[in-house]
Amino acid sequence: MRAAPAEAPDARVSAVRAWVFDLDNTLYPPEARLFDQVNARITAHVMRALGVAEAEAEALRARYWREHGTTLAGLMAHHGIDPEAYLEDVHEIDLSPLSPDPALAAAIARLPGRKIVYTNGSRGHGRRITAALGLSFDAIYGVEDAGFAPKPRREAFERVFAADRLDLSAAAMVEDDQRNLRAPVEMGMVAIWRPARADEAPEPHVHFVARDLAAFLSAVG
Asked: Is pLDDT of 218 > 90?
């Protein structure tokens, strides 16, 4: 039986030399509620693309997210929707709730090794969000870099990590969605979970819980 996840970094984290960060609700607090905007735009896009009422579009949005990893993956599988137009539309959101995060920026800058962002959103969305937060990374990858296959599918991680030539034997994945940590753990990575909700409990595959990401990363080493 695996031990309970640690809430402070130990030698396993100190040995990491490749850091992979999720984007939404991981690099900024869920209280910014940016994904409320994205979800509303997704529902509106589904309404227009499929010609359905709001209630049906909202139900499809949620169902495809649960079953496919992203709503986009479900729309592509069942309706042949154009992913490029979808991504451009749903990520046209107001970023004014975000502001630079100097503490997190400093903590990430001090980490040893390579630092990348890998999001189920678009690459452009990742660039806009990280710029608004004042964060710098070696590379930013979006769902298009995985051939539109979404996390949590292992094939999606494999495509992005292969493209970046990451050494997974000394790598960590930082995520708010615990299902997106299962494949990285199977691939030998350290799993660092940044909870989006206070009432959510860690699942058995999680190695570390980082409730305050900047503080957690600042303690590495």
From this structure: yes
Domain that holds residue 122: 11-29+99-218
Contact present, 18 and 167 (Cβ < 8 Å): yes
For residue 16, is it within any domain? yes
pLDDT of 129 > 70? The answer is yes
Cα separation, 45 vs 88, in Å, equals 11
Structural domain count of the chain: 2
Tens-digit pLDDT profile for residues 165-214: 999 999 999 999 999 999 999 999 999 999 988 889 999 999 999 999 99
Residue 56 sits in the same domain as residue 148:
no
What pTM, to 2 d.p., does this model score?
Answer: 0.94
Cα separation of 197 and 33, whole Å?
Answer: 12
Specify if 80 maps to a domain. Answer: yes
Cβ neighbors of 75 (< 8 A, separation 6 or more) are 46, 49, 60, 64, 81, 86
H-run or E-run covering 141: strand 139-141
The enclosing domain of 125 has a CATH number of: 3.40.50.1000
CB 61 within 8 Å of CB 213? no
Neighbours of 204 (CB within 10 A): 12
Residue 5 lies inside a defined structural domain of this protein: no
**152 prior amide bond cis, ω within 30:** yes
